Structures are given as structure tokens and as C-alpha cells.
TrEMBL record:
It comes from Allisonella histaminiformans. The chain crosses the membrane at residues 71-93. Residues 1-63 are annotated as: Disordered. Keywords: Cell cycle, Cell division, Cell membrane, Membrane, Transmembrane, Transmembrane helix. Residues 1-29 have a biased composition (Basic and acidic residues). One of its GO terms (biological process) is cell division. It holds the Pfam family POTRA_1. Residues 163-287 form the Cell division protein FtsQ/DivIB C-terminal domain. Residues 92-158 form the POTRA domain. This is Cell division protein FtsQ. Residues 47-60 have a biased composition (Basic residues).
Length: 298
């Protein structure tokens, strides 16, 4: 019996057509060793994955960058509020110390500096305080500065009365700079030396005297030592080329024009001391720095 042929094959042989090739049968390929993962390795990978997840849950979380920014901004905000409170609210902070003055007290400084109580040194301008204190006629000079941590120091040099000069209506007490410290209606309550020979006009508190002869008289008294200052009672400046100083004993000292008034003041003090020590009867003393002499009474 011949080989079984399909009708389609029979037709192809009858007409001389080539046989139809059968399609090749493809079987699924076996997985390679690299792609094949044994069950045991898969289980190990799964175990490691779960362990990492558990450790990540147990590990404390770090604050994010946003949290640090919030903390920083919050801290800065609190500091700004604290500074504003100390700058503008009546919160006590620090103190003011006054030194060097026998006339000006701490209460005077607070009043003249327009400083409210309680004292808060952060609200005080040292420059403005110093400027206001210079307006006090009792103060010759003042220095204000800050000292760590919260203290303000006020160093004051008092004005020291030096001499008295007559005005139109009263007597003016002058300091070494010629500033009118106060006025008196009479001389009975003062022990200061007086400048005579000149009568000034209407003198007001705080005025600064500019008359050259009066300024020479002030310079004479201010150049003496405290002990020498107590020896003299007067200087007459009525004649510009013949200034005469007088001791409390009435001894006259001729100063001429007073060109070297500072040297003459020191020399006068020494010569008066010598006369007293030797108990001399003196008519007058010529205080010429180049050739001083003592005129004895006959």
C-alpha cells in the first residue's frame, strides 16, 4: 500500500509544484543558570529585605532640613522679641555710676539726662547724656562711657570757683575759664579773692568773661597752689601795664603787664612765703621774673 497523501499534496504532484514544507516545531528553551534562581536564594533575598525594613523602622529618624529651618527662624524670632522688650519697655537693666563730683549726684544725672526710672542702660544714649550734662554750670568737663556688662560710667570734673568780679548789679563768681558760676548780691558770704579795677556790665549765669585784664587776674589765682591761693585776697587790673596783687595781710606785689603771669604767680607765692618766714617788714615786692626784689620798709 502506498504512502498516504493529502489532497493538497496530490494536486501539487499533478501540476508539478514543490512540496509544502512543514513548519518547524519550537519547544520552550530551558532557563540558563544565571536566570535560574533556586528557591533557597529567593527565600534568603526575601529575608534580607524584611530585615532592612524592620531596621529602618527602629532607627530614629533625623529631622529634615525644613525642621532645622523652622527651629532657626523660631529662635531668631524669640531673640528679636527679647531685644525689643529691653529696648522699648520699662524693664530695669544695669545702673549708672557717677564719679569725681562733689556737687552733682546720680539723681541730678537722671534728671538732666531725662532718664526714666527704672534705669535701662540699653535705652540710654551716652553721647546725648554727655551733651546734656555739659549744660550744667556746675560741671567743668564730663565723660560718659559704657562698661561691661550693663553699666554706664559718668566721670565729672566740677567747676571750682576762682575769683569774684563786680558787675552792674551784683558780683559774679568765676571759675578758672572765666565762666560765671553764680552771682552774689554782696561779698560777705564769700572768701574768694576779688578782681578789682574793672566793673563789668550786666553779668548773667553761664556767661564767659573775655576781658583780657580780668582773664589775667583769673590766671594768676588759678596758677597758685591751694596753700598759695589762701595767701591772696585781691588783684587790681585797673591799669593794664601795672597789675598789683595783694595778700590778706595787705602786702602789695607789683606784676607789671602780667606778660608772664603764670611764672609770676608761682614766684609771688615763694617770695611771700620767704617774707613771712623771715618776718620782714616789707613795703612792696616787685615780681619781675628776670630781676625780682623786695622793698623793705625804712
Amino acid at each position: 500500500m502506498g504512502e498516504f497523501k493529502s489532497f493538497d499534496e496530490f494536486q501539487r504532484e499533478l501540476h508539478g509544484l514543490p512540496k509544502k514544507e512543514e513548519p518547524a516545531v519550537r519547544f520552550p528553551e530551558e532557563p540558563s543558570e544565571s536566570e535560574y534562581q533556586p528557591e533557597s536564594e529567593y527565600e534568603e533575598h526575601k529575608t534580607k529585605h524584611h530585615r532592612r525594613r524592620r531596621e529602618s523602622r527602629l532607627r530614629p529618624s533625623r529631622p529634615s532640613g525644613l525642621s532645622w529651618k523652622k527651629l532657626f527662624h523660631g529662635t531668631v524670632g524669640v531673640l528679636i522679641i527679647v531685644v525689643l522688650v529691653f529696648l522699648f519697655c520699662p524693664v530695669p537693666l544695669g545702673d549708672i555710676t557717677v564719679q569725681g563730683s562733689n556737687a552733682v549726684t546720680k539723681n541730678d544725672v537722671l534728671f538732666e539726662g531725662q532718664i526714666k526710672q527704672p534705669v535701662n542702660v540699653l535705652q540710654i544714649s551716652t553721647g546725648k547724656l554727655e551733651e546734656r550734662l555739659t549744660q550744667d554750670i556746675r560741671i567743668s568737663s564730663v565723660k560718659v562711657w559704657r562698661e561691661f556688662p550693663f553699666d554706664i560710667k559718668v566721670a565729672i570734673n566740677d567747676r571750682v570757683p576762682c575769683a569774684v568780679v563786680q558787675g552792674d548789679y551784683d558780683y559774679a563768681v568765676l571759675d578758672k575759664d572765666g565762666v560765671v558760676m553764680k552771682t552774689e548780691t554782696s561779698l560777705k558770704d564769700t572768701d574768694l579773692p576779688i578782681i578789682t579795677g574793672k566793673k563789668l556790665g550786666n553779668i548773667l549765669l553761664g556767661d564767659r568773661i573775655t576781658d583780657p585784664s580780668v582773664l589775667k587776674g583769673i590766671k594768676f589765682f588759678s596758677s597758685l597752689s591751694p596753700a598759695g591761693f589762701r595767701l591772696f585776697s585781691e588783684i587790681n587790673v585797673g591799669q593794664a601795664n601795672n597789675l598789683i596783687a595783694y595778700t590778706r595781710d595787705g602786702l602789695a606785689l607789683r606784676l607789671g603787664t602780667g606778660k608772664d603771669i603764670v611764672k609770676q604767680a608761682k614766684l609771688s607765692q615763694n617770695m611771700v612765703g620767704d617774707v613771712k618766714a623771715r618776718n620782714l617788714a616789707v613795703e612792696y615786692i616787685d615780681v619781675n621774673p628776670s630781676a625780682p626784689f623786695i622793698k623793705l620798709k625804712k
